[in-house]
Design brief:
This protein is mostly helical and about 140 residues long. The protein has 7 helices and no strands.
């Protein structure tokens, strides 16, 4: 027997049935994560389940992917803060001239309502950045 035929004999094929909903979820997951086939995903999951500390290149890449996802969340949070500060700065300079000394008490009393109006406008401005808004929604409402 040749070496190739011995190697082929060692591989065993397993057959099992998946519920339709799981089959659909696997198809979606493989498509989103550029996984070639469901069997690749299932083998990787079994390998990780049996030996989670295995030094497999694909598992290290999964760890890197998790770090990328977390880093993207930090970047998104920073982007929100940056957008908020720029919007607040422009709003303050354009719509709120300096207050005369005699009116400072009355102006401070209305600060809460002005801030609420400003913050609502800021929230509306985020809705114009659709990809960013969808990413934020996906992070908080996804089961992944």
């Amino acid at each position: 027997m040749s070496k190739n035929s011995k190697r082929l004999m060692k591989r065993k094929h397993k057959s099992f049935r998946l519920p339709e909903e799981l089959e659909h979820e696997l198809d979606l997951y493989c498509g989103v994560h550029n996984i070639k086939s469901q069997s690749d995903l299932i083998c990787e999951a079994i390998r990780y389940y049996i030996k989670p500390d295995i030094e497999d290149e694909t598992l290290r890449l999964i760890g890197i992917k998790d770090m990328q996802v977390k880093l993207q969340k930090v970047i998104d949070a920073q982007q929100i803060i940056f957008n908020f500060l720029i919007f607040m700065y422009k709003n303050n300079l354009c719509y709120h001239p300096e207050i005369p000394e005699s009116l400072k008490n009355e102006a401070s009393m209305s600060a809460k309502s002005r801030f609420d109006t400003f913050f609502n406008s800021f929230q509306e401005s985020l809705k114009n950045d659709v990809p960013f808004f969808e990413r934020i929604l996906h992070q908080y409402f996804s089961d992944e």
